Amino acid sequence: MTTVSVDEKSLPAADKNHSGLAFRIEPVVSVALAAALVGFLEYATRAGWISDIVLPRPSRVAWVLVDGFSTGFFQQHIISTLSSLALGFVCAFLAAVVVASVLTSSQFLERVFLPFIVAFQSLPKVAIAPLIVLWLGFGDLSKVTIVAIVCFFPIMVNTMQGLRVRDRDHYDLFRSLGAKPHQMFFRMRLPHAVPFISAGAQIGVIFALIGAVVAEFLGANSGLGFALIQAKAQFDVPGVYACLVLLMAVGLLLHFITSLVERRISFWLHDQSRIQI
Amino acid sequence: MRDGPGLSESIMNTSNAPVTTIDGGTHAQFATGMRCASALTIQGACKTYKRPNGPQFLALTPVDAEVREGEFVSLVGPSGCGKTTLLKMCSGLMSLSGGKIVHGRTGQKVQPGSYGFVFQVPALLPWLTVFNNVLLPARILGLPIKEAKDRAALLLDMVGLGNAHQKRPSELSGGMQQRVSLARALLHDPDLLFMDEPFGALDAMTRADLNMELQRLHMSQGKTVLFVTHDIEEATLLSDRILVMSANPGRIVADIPVKLPRPRGLAAKKDPQFYAVVERIHQLLDKRTVGRLVP
After folding, report:
1. How many CB atoms lie within 10 A of CB A265?
2. Tens digit of pLDDT for each residue in B125-140?
Protein backbone atom coordinates (compact mmCIF):
# COMPACT_ATOMS: atom_id res chain seq x y z
CA MET A 1 0.00 0.00 0.00
CA THR A 2 1.46 3.29 -1.03
CA THR A 3 -0.52 5.40 1.36
CA VAL A 4 1.13 4.53 4.65
CA SER A 5 2.43 7.99 5.29
CA VAL A 6 2.54 7.90 9.07
CA ASP A 7 5.85 6.83 10.46
CA GLU A 8 5.05 4.29 13.13
CA LYS A 9 8.58 4.22 14.43
CA SER A 10 7.92 7.61 15.96
CA LEU A 11 5.39 6.10 18.37
CA PRO A 12 7.50 3.81 20.58
CA ALA A 13 10.14 6.51 20.87
CA ALA A 14 7.72 8.58 22.91
CA ASP A 15 7.81 5.89 25.59
CA LYS A 16 11.39 6.60 26.58
CA ASN A 17 10.24 9.29 28.97
CA HIS A 18 8.15 6.75 30.80
CA SER A 19 10.77 4.12 31.47
CA GLY A 20 9.95 2.39 34.74
CA LEU A 21 13.60 1.72 35.54
CA ALA A 22 14.66 5.31 36.00
CA PHE A 23 15.76 6.18 39.54
CA ARG A 24 13.39 8.56 41.21
CA ILE A 25 14.37 10.75 44.12
CA GLU A 26 10.85 11.64 45.34
CA PRO A 27 10.10 8.44 47.33
CA VAL A 28 13.45 8.64 49.07
CA VAL A 29 12.76 12.22 50.13
CA SER A 30 9.28 11.23 51.36
CA VAL A 31 10.64 8.42 53.52
CA ALA A 32 13.42 10.60 54.88
CA LEU A 33 10.89 13.28 55.75
CA ALA A 34 8.68 10.77 57.60
CA ALA A 35 11.69 9.42 59.50
CA ALA A 36 12.75 12.95 60.44
CA LEU A 37 9.25 13.76 61.69
CA VAL A 38 9.07 10.62 63.85
CA GLY A 39 12.56 11.34 65.17
CA PHE A 40 11.59 14.89 66.03
CA LEU A 41 8.43 13.75 67.84
CA GLU A 42 10.46 11.19 69.78
CA TYR A 43 12.86 13.90 70.84
CA ALA A 44 10.08 16.38 71.64
CA THR A 45 8.18 13.90 73.82
CA ARG A 46 11.31 12.77 75.64
CA ALA A 47 12.26 16.37 76.29
CA GLY A 48 8.83 16.92 77.81
CA TRP A 49 7.68 19.52 75.28
CA ILE A 50 4.51 17.60 74.66
CA SER A 51 2.36 15.84 77.26
CA ASP A 52 2.13 12.05 77.14
CA ILE A 53 -1.66 12.34 77.00
CA VAL A 54 -1.51 14.42 73.83
CA LEU A 55 1.20 12.47 72.11
CA PRO A 56 2.94 9.39 73.43
CA ARG A 57 6.48 8.63 72.43
CA PRO A 58 6.63 7.05 68.98
CA SER A 59 8.88 4.37 70.43
CA ARG A 60 6.18 3.49 72.97
CA VAL A 61 3.58 3.26 70.19
CA ALA A 62 5.97 1.03 68.28
CA TRP A 63 6.39 -1.15 71.37
CA VAL A 64 2.60 -1.46 71.74
CA LEU A 65 2.40 -2.50 68.09
CA VAL A 66 5.13 -5.11 68.47
CA ASP A 67 3.57 -6.40 71.66
CA GLY A 68 0.09 -6.48 70.14
CA PHE A 69 1.22 -8.34 67.08
CA SER A 70 3.24 -10.85 69.08
CA THR A 71 0.16 -11.83 71.08
CA GLY A 72 -2.04 -11.91 68.00
CA PHE A 73 -4.23 -9.15 69.45
CA PHE A 74 -3.95 -6.80 66.47
CA GLN A 75 -4.13 -9.54 63.85
CA GLN A 76 -7.49 -10.58 65.23
CA HIS A 77 -8.86 -7.03 65.08
CA ILE A 78 -7.38 -6.24 61.68
CA ILE A 79 -8.93 -9.40 60.26
CA SER A 80 -12.25 -8.54 61.84
CA THR A 81 -12.26 -5.02 60.37
CA LEU A 82 -10.97 -6.11 56.99
CA SER A 83 -13.38 -9.02 56.59
CA SER A 84 -16.48 -6.95 57.40
CA LEU A 85 -15.12 -4.19 55.21
CA ALA A 86 -14.48 -6.54 52.30
CA LEU A 87 -17.87 -8.22 52.59
CA GLY A 88 -19.73 -4.89 52.87
CA PHE A 89 -17.75 -3.40 50.03
CA VAL A 90 -18.32 -6.30 47.65
CA CYS A 91 -22.07 -6.32 48.38
CA ALA A 92 -22.26 -2.55 47.89
CA PHE A 93 -20.19 -2.72 44.72
CA LEU A 94 -22.39 -5.35 43.09
CA ALA A 95 -25.59 -3.65 44.22
CA ALA A 96 -24.36 -0.23 43.07
CA VAL A 97 -23.43 -1.45 39.59
CA VAL A 98 -26.72 -3.32 39.18
CA VAL A 99 -28.85 -0.43 40.48
CA ALA A 100 -26.98 2.10 38.33
CA SER A 101 -27.43 -0.14 35.28
CA VAL A 102 -31.17 -0.45 35.90
CA LEU A 103 -31.64 3.26 36.56
CA THR A 104 -29.72 4.38 33.48
CA SER A 105 -31.51 1.87 31.28
CA SER A 106 -34.50 4.18 30.98
CA GLN A 107 -34.85 7.92 31.22
CA PHE A 108 -38.15 7.43 33.01
CA LEU A 109 -36.59 5.42 35.83
CA GLU A 110 -33.68 7.78 36.09
CA ARG A 111 -35.90 10.84 36.35
CA VAL A 112 -38.18 9.20 38.90
CA PHE A 113 -35.37 8.03 41.13
CA LEU A 114 -32.92 10.88 40.78
CA PRO A 115 -34.51 12.97 43.60
CA PHE A 116 -34.20 9.99 45.93
CA ILE A 117 -30.57 9.54 45.03
CA VAL A 118 -29.82 13.20 45.61
CA ALA A 119 -31.68 13.13 48.92
CA PHE A 120 -29.80 10.07 50.14
CA GLN A 121 -26.53 11.41 48.89
CA SER A 122 -26.84 14.62 50.86
CA LEU A 123 -27.53 12.64 54.03
CA PRO A 124 -24.36 11.79 55.99
CA LYS A 125 -24.61 8.03 55.84
CA VAL A 126 -22.88 7.45 59.17
CA ALA A 127 -25.87 9.20 60.77
CA ILE A 128 -27.94 6.13 59.89
CA ALA A 129 -25.45 3.89 61.64
CA PRO A 130 -27.08 4.06 65.12
CA LEU A 131 -30.37 3.05 63.52
CA ILE A 132 -28.74 0.09 61.80
CA VAL A 133 -27.26 -1.04 65.10
CA LEU A 134 -30.71 -0.71 66.64
CA TRP A 135 -32.21 -2.88 63.91
CA LEU A 136 -29.52 -5.48 63.48
CA GLY A 137 -27.90 -5.48 66.88
CA PHE A 138 -24.24 -5.38 67.92
CA GLY A 139 -22.24 -7.59 65.69
CA ASP A 140 -20.83 -8.24 62.31
CA LEU A 141 -24.13 -8.02 60.46
CA SER A 142 -24.70 -4.38 61.37
CA LYS A 143 -21.03 -3.63 60.73
CA VAL A 144 -21.23 -5.11 57.22
CA THR A 145 -24.49 -3.27 56.57
CA ILE A 146 -23.10 0.08 57.65
CA VAL A 147 -20.02 -0.41 55.48
CA ALA A 148 -22.22 -1.31 52.51
CA ILE A 149 -24.52 1.71 52.95
CA VAL A 150 -21.62 4.10 53.31
CA CYS A 151 -19.77 3.00 50.18
CA PHE A 152 -22.80 2.20 48.01
CA PHE A 153 -23.50 5.76 46.90
CA PRO A 154 -20.14 6.93 45.61
CA ILE A 155 -19.88 3.76 43.52
CA MET A 156 -23.43 4.02 42.21
CA VAL A 157 -23.25 7.70 41.32
CA ASN A 158 -19.95 7.21 39.51
CA THR A 159 -21.26 4.17 37.67
CA MET A 160 -24.33 6.08 36.53
CA GLN A 161 -22.06 8.81 35.26
CA GLY A 162 -20.05 6.31 33.26
CA LEU A 163 -23.03 4.46 31.84
CA ARG A 164 -24.44 7.59 30.29
CA VAL A 165 -22.41 7.60 27.11
CA ARG A 166 -22.33 11.11 25.80
CA ASP A 167 -20.46 10.24 22.64
CA ARG A 168 -23.16 10.65 20.00
CA ASP A 169 -21.01 8.93 17.37
CA HIS A 170 -20.47 5.78 19.42
CA TYR A 171 -24.19 5.65 19.97
CA ASP A 172 -24.93 6.19 16.26
CA LEU A 173 -22.34 3.58 15.33
CA PHE A 174 -24.11 0.94 17.42
CA ARG A 175 -27.49 2.01 16.08
CA SER A 176 -26.22 1.87 12.50
CA LEU A 177 -25.32 -1.77 13.14
CA GLY A 178 -28.73 -2.46 14.61
CA ALA A 179 -27.30 -3.24 18.05
CA LYS A 180 -29.80 -4.46 20.61
CA PRO A 181 -29.98 -2.81 24.05
CA HIS A 182 -28.00 -5.59 25.72
CA GLN A 183 -25.29 -5.32 23.06
CA MET A 184 -25.11 -1.57 23.60
CA PHE A 185 -24.83 -2.20 27.32
CA PHE A 186 -22.13 -4.84 27.30
CA ARG A 187 -20.14 -3.63 24.31
CA MET A 188 -20.35 0.13 24.75
CA ARG A 189 -21.84 1.49 27.95
CA LEU A 190 -20.34 -0.91 30.47
CA PRO A 191 -16.76 -0.75 29.12
CA HIS A 192 -17.15 3.00 28.93
CA ALA A 193 -18.18 3.02 32.58
CA VAL A 194 -15.27 0.91 33.83
CA PRO A 195 -12.94 3.82 34.66
CA PHE A 196 -15.85 5.58 36.37
CA ILE A 197 -16.70 2.46 38.36
CA SER A 198 -13.14 2.02 39.51
CA ALA A 199 -12.90 5.70 40.46
CA GLY A 200 -16.09 5.20 42.47
CA ALA A 201 -14.62 2.07 44.05
CA GLN A 202 -11.52 3.98 45.05
CA ILE A 203 -13.59 6.57 46.87
CA GLY A 204 -15.94 3.86 48.15
CA VAL A 205 -13.22 1.77 49.75
CA ILE A 206 -12.05 4.69 51.88
CA PHE A 207 -15.67 5.42 52.80
CA ALA A 208 -15.97 1.77 53.70
CA LEU A 209 -13.13 2.05 56.18
CA ILE A 210 -14.84 5.05 57.78
CA GLY A 211 -18.06 3.06 57.92
CA ALA A 212 -16.35 0.06 59.52
CA VAL A 213 -14.70 2.18 62.22
CA VAL A 214 -17.93 4.06 62.97
CA ALA A 215 -19.77 0.76 63.26
CA GLU A 216 -17.10 -0.54 65.62
CA PHE A 217 -17.34 2.63 67.71
CA LEU A 218 -21.08 2.20 68.03
CA GLY A 219 -21.12 -1.33 69.11
CA ALA A 220 -18.99 -4.26 68.14
CA ASN A 221 -16.90 -6.80 69.93
CA SER A 222 -13.94 -6.80 67.59
CA GLY A 223 -12.16 -4.69 65.04
CA LEU A 224 -9.67 -1.85 65.07
CA GLY A 225 -12.33 0.72 65.98
CA PHE A 226 -13.36 -1.48 68.91
CA ALA A 227 -9.71 -1.84 69.99
CA LEU A 228 -9.30 1.92 69.76
CA ILE A 229 -12.34 2.59 71.96
CA GLN A 230 -11.11 0.03 74.49
CA ALA A 231 -7.66 1.58 74.62
CA LYS A 232 -9.24 4.99 75.11
CA ALA A 233 -11.39 3.70 77.95
CA GLN A 234 -8.23 2.50 79.71
CA PHE A 235 -6.41 5.81 79.07
CA ASP A 236 -3.97 3.78 77.01
CA VAL A 237 -2.94 6.63 74.70
CA PRO A 238 -0.14 4.65 72.99
CA GLY A 239 -2.72 1.94 72.30
CA VAL A 240 -5.03 4.51 70.66
CA TYR A 241 -2.16 5.73 68.51
CA ALA A 242 -1.22 2.18 67.61
CA CYS A 243 -4.78 1.64 66.33
CA LEU A 244 -4.59 4.87 64.36
CA VAL A 245 -1.33 3.78 62.76
CA LEU A 246 -2.90 0.46 61.84
CA LEU A 247 -6.00 2.16 60.40
CA MET A 248 -3.76 4.35 58.31
CA ALA A 249 -1.86 1.30 57.10
CA VAL A 250 -5.10 -0.48 56.25
CA GLY A 251 -6.34 2.62 54.36
CA LEU A 252 -3.09 2.81 52.43
CA LEU A 253 -3.25 -0.88 51.62
CA LEU A 254 -6.81 -0.56 50.33
CA HIS A 255 -5.93 2.47 48.27
CA PHE A 256 -2.95 0.66 46.84
CA ILE A 257 -5.00 -2.39 45.90
CA THR A 258 -7.77 -0.37 44.24
CA SER A 259 -5.40 1.80 42.26
CA LEU A 260 -3.58 -1.32 41.10
CA VAL A 261 -6.87 -2.81 39.97
CA GLU A 262 -7.87 0.49 38.39
CA ARG A 263 -4.64 0.59 36.40
CA ARG A 264 -5.26 -2.92 35.16
CA ILE A 265 -8.85 -2.58 34.06
CA SER A 266 -8.89 0.92 32.65
CA PHE A 267 -5.56 0.67 30.89
CA TRP A 268 -6.93 2.41 27.81
CA LEU A 269 -7.59 5.57 29.77
CA HIS A 270 -3.96 5.62 30.87
CA ASP A 271 -2.86 5.04 27.29
CA GLN A 272 -4.73 8.11 26.26
CA SER A 273 -3.53 10.31 29.05
CA ARG A 274 0.03 9.23 28.33
CA ILE A 275 -0.22 10.31 24.73
CA GLN A 276 -1.82 13.58 25.66
CA ILE A 277 0.88 14.62 28.10
CA MET B 1 -13.00 -10.18 -0.49
CA ARG B 2 -14.13 -9.02 -3.87
CA ASP B 3 -11.20 -7.16 -5.16
CA GLY B 4 -9.16 -6.69 -8.27
CA PRO B 5 -9.53 -4.94 -11.58
CA GLY B 6 -11.65 -7.64 -13.18
CA LEU B 7 -14.67 -6.88 -11.10
CA SER B 8 -14.38 -3.14 -11.45
CA GLU B 9 -14.45 -3.52 -15.20
CA SER B 10 -17.63 -5.51 -15.06
CA ILE B 11 -19.31 -2.90 -12.91
CA MET B 12 -18.42 -0.15 -15.33
CA ASN B 13 -20.53 0.85 -18.25
CA THR B 14 -23.61 -1.09 -17.44
CA SER B 15 -25.91 1.88 -17.21
CA ASN B 16 -27.73 3.40 -20.07
CA ALA B 17 -30.51 5.17 -18.26
CA PRO B 18 -30.92 8.73 -19.46
CA VAL B 19 -30.51 11.23 -16.68
CA THR B 20 -31.89 14.71 -16.67
CA THR B 21 -29.84 17.17 -14.79
CA ILE B 22 -30.21 20.70 -13.64
CA ASP B 23 -28.14 22.05 -16.46
CA GLY B 24 -30.69 20.80 -18.89
CA GLY B 25 -28.62 18.19 -20.64
CA THR B 26 -29.47 14.54 -20.85
CA HIS B 27 -26.68 12.12 -21.12
CA ALA B 28 -27.04 8.48 -21.79
CA GLN B 29 -24.27 7.30 -19.63
CA PHE B 30 -21.73 8.53 -17.16
CA ALA B 31 -18.13 7.93 -17.91
CA THR B 32 -17.74 5.82 -14.82
CA GLY B 33 -20.95 3.93 -15.21
CA MET B 34 -23.30 2.29 -12.76
CA ARG B 35 -26.06 -0.24 -12.59
CA CYS B 36 -29.52 0.96 -13.50
CA ALA B 37 -31.18 -0.38 -10.37
CA SER B 38 -31.93 2.12 -7.68
CA ALA B 39 -30.11 1.70 -4.39
CA LEU B 40 -31.94 4.45 -2.54
CA THR B 41 -35.13 6.24 -3.42
CA ILE B 42 -35.85 9.43 -1.55
CA GLN B 43 -39.39 10.72 -1.94
CA GLY B 44 -40.47 13.93 -0.29
CA ALA B 45 -38.23 13.32 2.69
CA CYS B 46 -38.29 16.29 5.02
CA LYS B 47 -37.31 17.18 8.54
CA THR B 48 -38.93 19.67 10.87
CA TYR B 49 -38.02 20.44 14.45
CA LYS B 50 -40.48 21.60 17.04
CA ARG B 51 -39.57 24.79 18.74
CA PRO B 52 -40.60 25.32 22.35
CA ASN B 53 -42.58 28.39 21.37
CA GLY B 54 -43.22 29.58 17.88
CA PRO B 55 -43.51 27.89 14.53
CA GLN B 56 -41.81 24.67 13.52
CA PHE B 57 -38.32 24.92 12.16
CA LEU B 58 -37.95 23.42 8.73
CA ALA B 59 -34.49 21.85 8.60
CA LEU B 60 -35.04 20.12 5.29
CA THR B 61 -37.79 20.83 2.76
CA PRO B 62 -39.28 17.82 1.04
CA VAL B 63 -36.53 16.32 -1.08
CA ASP B 64 -36.66 13.87 -3.97
CA ALA B 65 -33.59 12.07 -5.12
CA GLU B 66 -32.36 8.73 -6.27
CA VAL B 67 -29.10 6.95 -5.80
CA ARG B 68 -28.42 4.11 -8.20
CA GLU B 69 -26.54 0.97 -7.34
CA GLY B 70 -22.80 1.31 -7.54
CA GLU B 71 -23.07 5.06 -7.80
CA PHE B 72 -20.97 7.52 -5.82
CA VAL B 73 -23.16 10.46 -4.89
CA SER B 74 -22.00 13.44 -2.88
CA LEU B 75 -24.10 15.87 -0.89
CA VAL B 76 -22.44 19.26 -0.96
CA GLY B 77 -23.55 22.45 0.68
CA PRO B 78 -22.93 25.04 3.35
CA SER B 79 -23.36 24.15 7.00
CA GLY B 80 -26.98 24.07 8.02
CA CYS B 81 -28.22 22.92 4.63
CA GLY B 82 -29.33 19.59 6.06
CA LYS B 83 -26.84 17.35 4.27
CA THR B 84 -25.96 15.37 7.38
CA THR B 85 -29.65 15.31 8.29
CA LEU B 86 -30.47 13.81 4.90
CA LEU B 87 -27.66 11.28 5.24
CA LYS B 88 -28.77 10.21 8.70
CA MET B 89 -32.38 9.98 7.51
CA CYS B 90 -31.28 7.76 4.64
CA SER B 91 -29.49 5.45 7.07
CA GLY B 92 -32.38 5.42 9.50
CA LEU B 93 -30.32 7.05 12.25
CA MET B 94 -32.73 9.96 12.17
CA SER B 95 -36.48 9.84 11.76
CA LEU B 96 -38.30 11.48 8.88
CA SER B 97 -40.89 14.17 9.49
CA GLY B 98 -42.49 13.32 6.18
CA GLY B 99 -42.00 11.44 2.95
CA LYS B 100 -40.14 8.20 2.69
CA ILE B 101 -36.73 6.79 1.90
CA VAL B 102 -36.61 3.22 0.70
CA HIS B 103 -33.96 0.74 -0.27
CA GLY B 104 -34.18 0.32 -4.03
CA ARG B 105 -34.03 -3.46 -4.17
CA THR B 106 -36.27 -4.32 -1.24
CA GLY B 107 -38.61 -1.34 -1.33
CA GLN B 108 -38.31 -1.32 2.46
CA LYS B 109 -36.70 1.11 4.81
CA VAL B 110 -32.93 0.84 4.96
CA GLN B 111 -32.23 -1.71 7.69
CA PRO B 112 -29.62 -1.09 10.36
CA GLY B 113 -26.71 -3.45 9.91
CA SER B 114 -27.20 -3.57 6.15
CA TYR B 115 -24.94 -0.62 5.46
CA GLY B 116 -21.63 0.84 6.56
CA PHE B 117 -21.45 4.25 8.16
CA VAL B 118 -18.29 6.31 8.43
CA PHE B 119 -18.59 9.24 10.80
CA GLN B 120 -16.82 12.55 10.82
CA VAL B 121 -14.74 11.30 13.75
CA PRO B 122 -13.32 7.76 13.79
CA ALA B 123 -15.59 6.77 16.74
CA LEU B 124 -13.34 3.83 17.63
CA LEU B 125 -13.85 2.16 20.99
CA PRO B 126 -10.72 3.07 22.96
CA TRP B 127 -10.74 -0.11 25.06
CA LEU B 128 -10.55 -2.39 22.03
CA THR B 129 -7.54 -3.09 19.86
CA VAL B 130 -7.59 -1.93 16.27
CA PHE B 131 -8.38 -5.48 15.15
CA ASN B 132 -11.28 -5.87 17.56
CA ASN B 133 -12.62 -2.47 16.55
CA VAL B 134 -12.79 -3.64 12.96
CA LEU B 135 -14.40 -6.86 14.14
CA LEU B 136 -17.15 -5.05 16.06
CA PRO B 137 -19.85 -5.22 13.35
CA ALA B 138 -19.41 -9.00 13.17
CA ARG B 139 -19.87 -9.32 16.93
CA ILE B 140 -23.00 -7.18 16.89
CA LEU B 141 -24.51 -8.71 13.80
CA GLY B 142 -23.58 -12.20 14.97
CA LEU B 143 -21.59 -13.08 11.86
CA PRO B 144 -19.32 -16.15 11.90
CA ILE B 145 -16.27 -14.92 13.75
CA LYS B 146 -13.66 -16.96 11.96
CA GLU B 147 -14.56 -15.61 8.52
CA ALA B 148 -14.94 -12.13 9.97
CA LYS B 149 -11.44 -12.31 11.42
CA ASP B 150 -9.97 -13.23 8.06
CA ARG B 151 -11.86 -10.40 6.46
CA ALA B 152 -10.82 -7.92 9.15
CA ALA B 153 -7.18 -8.80 8.49
CA LEU B 154 -7.66 -8.32 4.75
CA LEU B 155 -9.40 -4.98 5.25
CA LEU B 156 -6.68 -3.75 7.58
CA ASP B 157 -4.11 -4.74 4.97
CA MET B 158 -6.12 -2.85 2.39
CA VAL B 159 -6.16 0.38 4.40
CA GLY B 160 -2.44 -0.01 5.08
CA LEU B 161 -2.66 -0.98 8.73
CA GLY B 162 -1.72 -4.64 8.43
CA ASN B 163 0.89 -4.24 11.16
CA ALA B 164 -1.28 -2.37 13.64
CA HIS B 165 -3.70 -5.13 14.64
CA GLN B 166 -2.90 -5.16 18.33
CA LYS B 167 -2.49 -1.41 18.76
CA ARG B 168 -4.96 0.72 20.66
CA PRO B 169 -6.72 3.53 18.83
CA SER B 170 -4.97 6.06 21.05
CA GLU B 171 -1.64 4.94 19.60
CA LEU B 172 -2.72 5.87 16.08
CA SER B 173 -2.81 9.21 14.34
CA GLY B 174 -6.10 10.73 13.28
CA GLY B 175 -5.69 9.59 9.69
CA MET B 176 -4.89 6.03 10.74
CA GLN B 177 -7.89 5.99 13.06
CA GLN B 178 -10.13 7.06 10.21
CA ARG B 179 -8.69 4.24 8.08
CA VAL B 180 -9.63 1.81 10.84
CA SER B 181 -13.15 3.19 10.89
CA LEU B 182 -13.34 2.77 7.11
CA ALA B 183 -12.25 -0.87 7.46
CA ARG B 184 -14.84 -1.35 10.19
CA ALA B 185 -17.60 0.07 7.99
CA LEU B 186 -16.70 -2.50 5.32
CA LEU B 187 -16.41 -5.56 7.55
CA HIS B 188 -19.91 -6.89 6.98
CA ASP B 189 -19.49 -6.22 3.24
CA PRO B 190 -22.39 -3.79 2.91
CA ASP B 191 -23.51 -2.66 -0.53
CA LEU B 192 -24.27 0.78 0.81
CA LEU B 193 -21.78 3.09 2.41
CA PHE B 194 -22.81 6.31 4.13
CA MET B 195 -20.02 8.75 4.82
CA ASP B 196 -20.50 11.92 6.84
CA GLU B 197 -17.59 14.25 6.10
CA PRO B 198 -15.25 11.36 6.86
CA PHE B 199 -12.08 13.22 6.00
CA GLY B 200 -13.13 16.66 7.19
CA ALA B 201 -10.90 16.63 10.26
CA LEU B 202 -7.79 15.37 8.49
CA ASP B 203 -4.83 17.22 7.10
CA ALA B 204 -4.66 17.78 3.35
CA MET B 205 -2.09 15.07 2.65
CA THR B 206 -3.81 12.30 4.58
CA ARG B 207 -7.04 13.43 3.05
CA ALA B 208 -5.70 13.11 -0.49
CA ASP B 209 -4.40 9.63 0.36
CA LEU B 210 -7.71 8.51 1.74
CA ASN B 211 -9.60 10.02 -1.20
CA MET B 212 -7.58 7.87 -3.55
CA GLU B 213 -8.12 4.84 -1.37
CA LEU B 214 -11.85 5.43 -1.28
CA GLN B 215 -11.99 5.79 -5.04
CA ARG B 216 -10.09 2.55 -5.47
CA LEU B 217 -12.48 0.87 -3.08
CA HIS B 218 -15.53 2.22 -4.83
CA MET B 219 -14.24 1.10 -8.20
CA SER B 220 -13.05 -2.34 -7.15
CA GLN B 221 -15.96 -3.35 -4.94
CA GLY B 222 -18.80 -1.50 -6.63
CA LYS B 223 -20.15 -0.05 -3.42
CA THR B 224 -22.90 2.51 -3.54
CA VAL B 225 -21.64 5.52 -1.65
CA LEU B 226 -23.53 8.49 -0.29
CA PHE B 227 -20.92 10.98 0.75
CA VAL B 228 -21.37 14.22 2.66
CA THR B 229 -18.71 16.89 2.33
CA HIS B 230 -18.36 20.64 2.25
CA ASP B 231 -15.28 20.36 0.08
CA ILE B 232 -16.34 20.92 -3.52
CA GLU B 233 -13.12 19.65 -5.04
CA GLU B 234 -13.25 16.49 -2.98
CA ALA B 235 -16.83 15.90 -4.10
CA THR B 236 -15.92 16.50 -7.73
CA LEU B 237 -12.92 14.21 -7.57
CA LEU B 238 -14.84 11.30 -6.08
CA SER B 239 -18.42 11.52 -7.29
CA ASP B 240 -20.44 10.27 -10.18
CA ARG B 241 -23.08 12.78 -9.23
CA ILE B 242 -23.19 15.73 -6.87
CA LEU B 243 -26.35 16.89 -5.14
CA VAL B 244 -25.83 20.55 -4.32
CA MET B 245 -27.75 21.69 -1.28
CA SER B 246 -28.64 25.09 0.07
CA ALA B 247 -29.59 26.32 3.52
CA ASN B 248 -32.55 28.27 4.89
CA PRO B 249 -34.44 26.17 4.27
CA GLY B 250 -32.36 23.06 3.53
CA ARG B 251 -33.04 21.82 0.02
CA ILE B 252 -31.40 20.26 -3.02
CA VAL B 253 -30.78 22.96 -5.62
CA ALA B 254 -28.95 20.99 -8.27
CA ASP B 255 -28.01 17.52 -9.41
CA ILE B 256 -24.71 17.70 -11.23
CA PRO B 257 -23.10 14.73 -12.97
CA VAL B 258 -19.34 14.38 -13.08
CA LYS B 259 -18.34 12.68 -16.26
CA LEU B 260 -14.59 12.55 -15.77
CA PRO B 261 -13.02 9.16 -16.50
CA ARG B 262 -11.85 7.04 -13.61
CA PRO B 263 -9.54 6.49 -11.93
CA ARG B 264 -9.12 10.15 -11.22
CA GLY B 265 -5.73 11.06 -9.90
CA LEU B 266 -4.18 14.41 -9.24
CA ALA B 267 -4.13 15.01 -12.98
CA ALA B 268 -7.91 15.02 -13.04
CA LYS B 269 -7.86 18.27 -11.13
CA LYS B 270 -6.23 19.93 -14.14
CA ASP B 271 -8.97 18.74 -16.46
CA PRO B 272 -11.14 21.63 -17.74
CA GLN B 273 -14.21 19.52 -17.06
CA PHE B 274 -13.19 19.28 -13.43
CA TYR B 275 -13.05 23.04 -13.16
CA ALA B 276 -16.29 23.45 -15.02
CA VAL B 277 -18.02 21.33 -12.38
CA VAL B 278 -16.29 23.05 -9.48
CA GLU B 279 -17.16 26.45 -10.87
CA ARG B 280 -20.75 25.45 -11.49
CA ILE B 281 -21.14 24.35 -7.87
CA HIS B 282 -19.52 27.52 -6.60
CA GLN B 283 -21.96 29.51 -8.67
CA LEU B 284 -24.86 27.62 -7.22
CA LEU B 285 -23.66 27.91 -3.67
CA ASP B 286 -22.57 31.51 -3.54
CA LYS B 287 -22.29 33.86 -6.46
CA ARG B 288 -19.76 36.00 -4.67
CA THR B 289 -17.11 33.33 -4.51
CA VAL B 290 -17.04 32.73 -8.25
CA GLY B 291 -13.97 34.02 -9.96
CA ARG B 292 -12.14 34.39 -6.69
CA LEU B 293 -11.71 30.74 -5.86
CA VAL B 294 -11.91 29.36 -9.37
CA PRO B 295 -9.24 30.56 -11.77
Report:
1. 15
2. 999 999 999 999 999 9
